[in-house]
Amino acid sequence: ANADGSCVYIDRDDSGSGDVIFRNCKFINCGNTSKDGGAIYIQDIDNVSQKVIFENCIAVGCEADEGGFLYCNDSDAVINGSGSTVILDCLAIYGGGGGYTEAVNTFDGFIFADNKSADDGGGMYNNNGTDGVSTISNCRFYRNVAGDSINKYAGGGLYVRDDNGYVKNCKFFE
Q1: 38 closest CA partner among 77, 76, 9, 11
Q2: 8 A C-beta contact, residue 66 and residue 35
Q3: Residue 106 pLDDT more than 80?
């Protein structure tokens, strides 16, 4: 699809309530490298009690400009991978091979493996800005790459930009 979040676009603004739950979903080869959020784009969840929950899901081969699988913009959402959601072999041109968050949010319980960004954040790119506080917790990062054989960039597994980012109980391999 030629749009942000080629599979799912979530825009709750102030009108939505409740959680969005993905259960046993597969996102295969989703995306477009000229748009953000290869499979999913989340915007304007303004209530920290609202969650986007992934249970036993897998994303494989998704690609985007930013956020190969998922892009979260201007959102207070809690995004939870339940420890069973795998983001595998996804690609981003400008950051966040597996995921890109630009918001005040919590990102918890994802497995990032073999993702790549041609820029910073091979597994995940977190840009919480100067006003935000982001927590990335209980995630595992395996063999993610930032850059290529000529241009080396930062954060093969995870790139955290700006102030107030917390990383807790995460594991990084290779």
Answers
A1: 9
A2: no
A3: yes
If we measure between CA atoms, which residue out of 117, 143, 85, 133 comes closest to residue 160?
133
Amino acid letter for position 110: F
Comparing C-alpha atoms, which of 51, 37, 56, 48 is closest to residue 102?
37
Structure tokens at 7: 């599979």
Q: Which two tokens stand for residue 52?
A: 């986007």
CB 139 within 8 A of CB 114: no
The whole-model pTM stands at: 0.90
Select, from the ranges 40-54, 56-70, 77-91, 103-117, the one with the highest average predicted confidence (pLDDT).
Answer: 56-70
Asked whether the beta carbons of 117 and 89 are under 8 A apart, the reply is no
8 Å CB contact between 96 and 71: yes
State how far Cα 156 lies from the chain centre. 14
Tokens of 16: 């939505």
Q: 16-49 pLDDT, tens per residue? A: 567 889 999 999 999 988 889 999 998 877 666 6
Side chain identity, residue 66: E
